[in-house]
Structures are given as C-alpha cells and as structure tokens.
Design brief:
By secondary structure, the protein is mainly beta. The protein has one domain: Porin (Beta Barrel). 11% of the residues lie in helices and 54% in strands. The chain contains 4 helices and 18 strands. It has a 16-stranded antiparallel beta barrel. A hairpin with a 6-residue loop joins strand 15 and strand 16. InterPro entries: Gram-neg_bact_OMP, Gram_neg_porin_domain, Porin_dom_sf, Porin_Gram-ve, Porin_Neis.
C-alpha cells in the first residue's frame, strides 16, 4: 500500500470519528441568504441598477449541558457577500462563548451591543432599503455597533422584563495606559404578547479615534390587533471630540425619531411604512426619511419583498436610504433627495 493510500485511509477514519463527536456537541448550522436588486438614485449624478447582498451570513452555534443548573454555549457567525469576489467577503459577525443558568447568562466575544439590539422593536426595514440605521448610524457619532472584546450579562426573564449590561475594552492594544478605548452599554427590555419595548444607554470613550459619545434610545411596538402593529423610535446623541471643530461636533449631536406601522393584508403578506427624521444641532444638517414596502412570506424560511425609500437632505448633508448593511451603498450628494426601489429575496436556514 502506498503512502498516499495510508494518508487517505487515515483521513476517512478521522472524519468518521469526528461526525459523532460533532453530533454529541449539539452543534447546528444556520444562516441567511439575502439578496436584492435595487434601482438607486442620489438625486444628482448617480442613477443605476445594483445587485446587493444584505447582511447575508453563515453560522455555527451550540449548547452543552454541564449539569441541570448550568450550560455552556457558543456561536461563530460570519458575513457572506453574494455576488462579489473581492477577497474580503467573509467577515466576523456575532461570535462569542458563554455560560447560562438560573442566574441569566454571561457571554464574551464580539457581538451587537445592548444599545444596538434595542432598536429591534421598531426595525421594520432591517437590512433593507429604508433601514433606520441610515439615520441613526451617522459618522463618528454612530452607535449601532458590534464591539470587539465585549463582556455582557443578561438577566433572567422576569415576567417579560429582562436587562442587558455590556462592557467592551475594544482592542486593548494602546501603549499609553491613560488612553481610554472603552464602551459601556445597557438596556432594559420588555417582551409581551401585544407590547415589545426597549430603553437603552451607551457611552463610548475613544480618545485616539472617534471621540466621546453618549446616547439614549427607546423603541417600542404595539399590536392593536393581530393584523395591525404600530412602532415608535427615539434616539438622542451627544458627541464630543476636541480634535474637530465645534461645527462638526454639532453636526453629529442629534435627535432622531420616527413612527411606523405594519398592516397584514393576508396571513403571509404585510404592508409596512415608516417616517423618520434626524434633527442635528448644526444648521442645515437635518434629514427626513420615508420608507414603504410590501413583504410576502412564501413559507416559514423564504420571503420576498419590494420597498421604496427616500431621504430628504438639508444643504450640508448627504444621507441615503441604502447606506447600511448592504454591499450596494454608493455615496449620496449633499443637499439632494436620494431614493431607492428594491426587490429582494431572503432565505433563512
């Protein structure tokens, strides 16, 4: 028998042994393939059709019961960009390891902050044209972040109420020990049959980069009936950075708020719409965004949709309704109204 046959035999044996080991570890594979065809117009010189991959992902997760009161859990999630081959289409998303039990849960790694997750109840157009992050996640004052090196505690569920507290030391590689690169984030949440709501606070100190920022946000969703849901959102951000001018700090200090609704036209079809505005402290830096769409679920895993969204910008701002969570994100034009029409397919597995 040749050396090659010996190696091949060993590989087959090792693979066979690994399969039951993986099964015993209770590991599951999951993901999302989310692609859309978009017509985007910046109101000035850009007007093109695009193919966009929208926060598509592939992940592995698992639980291991240590005893009746304690379990370990993990998740490894990567972003997958369909339609591109640019050498950087595989990026880390929520990836962590932790312990959970009657005390709640503790996890460590890189994942959405409690502040970011708190927008969930009002997020009617997540990862689509019209995503609210196009107004809430602006410049160096943005808060919808997935921070590195984070430790988070989540309380047990208490009649629908639960809280999250997170602390990130960021990279932890700065030689000057007086330099602060930390982030604290916390939220109080409620999830019931008709009402879902979150209130969150976050403060970030980044002396060597984006400056200091503090934010408060609240989001809620209320089901009037099984077919009608109303949502609301509010966020206030204060930005300080001695390295930039007062005018820049005022442009990034803002209040952002909005309301929306979702109406079920049939058991698997919903019509939705949302209006939002970003009111900056600086003059001529405000933006309004309107988004409307219809979504149809082909089954539990697959849905299709069509959306239209527009941002109406003041003279000094160039926000678009398509800039977040998408590979098709051309820049906007200052003072122009940017609009996008999108037809998408999402498959969760």
């Amino acid at each position: 028998m040749t050396l090659r046959k010996h190696i091949a035999g060993f590989a087959v044996t090792a693979l066979a042994a690994a399969i039951p080991a993986v099964a015993m570890a209770d590991v599951s594979i999951y993901g999302r393939a989310h692609v859309s065809v978009d017509f985007l117009d910046d109101g000035a010189d850009y007007s093109e059709t695009n193919l966009s991959s929208n926060s598509s992902r592939l992940g592995f997760k698992g639980d291991h019961e240590i005893n009746s009161n304690l379990s370990a859990f993990f998740q490894i999630e990567q972003q997958i960009d369909f339609g591109t081959d640019n050498g950087s289409s595989f990026n880390t998303r929520d990836t962590f390891v932790g312990l959970k039990g009657g005390f709640g849960s503790v996890r460590m790694g890189r994942f959405d902050s409690p502040f970011k997750a708190a927008r969930g109840p009002a997020n009617l157009f997540g990862d689509q044209v019209g995503d609210m992050r196009n107004l809430t996640r602006v410049g160096n004052a943005r808060f919808d972040e997935r921070y590195d090196n984070t430790i988070e505690y989540t309380t047990p569920d208490m009649s629908g109420f639960f809280a999250k507290l997170g602390y990130s030391v960021q990279e932890g590689t700065v030689a000057d020990q007086d330099t602060d690169e930390s982030v604290f984030s916390g939220s109080l949440n409620y999830a019931g049959d008709a009402l879902e709501a979150s209130v969150a606070y976050e403060t970030a100190e980044e002396d060597t980069g984006r400056g200091e920022r503090d934010g408060v946000r609240a989001a809620g969703a209320f089901k009037i009936t099984d077919g009608i849901k109303l949502v609301g959102f509010y966020q206030t951000v204060d930005y300080t950075n001695p390295a930039v001018t007062a005018a820049v700090q005022d442009a990034l200090t803002s209040d952002t708020y909005g309301v929306g609704a979702e109406f079920k036209l049939a058991s698997a079809t919903a019509l939705k719409g949302m209006w939002m505005t970003r009111d900056a402290d600086a003059d001529d830096f405000d933006t309004d965004m309107i988004a409307v769409g219809i979504e149809h679920k082909l089954d539990k895993a697959v849905r299709v949709y069509a959306n239209y969204a527009i941002t109406e910008n003041d003279a000094n701002v160039a926000l678009t309704p398509w800039g977040q969570a998408r590979t098709a994100n051309p820049a906007g034009a200052a003072g122009e109204d940017a609009s996008g029409f999108s037809v998408g397919l999402r498959y969760d597995f």
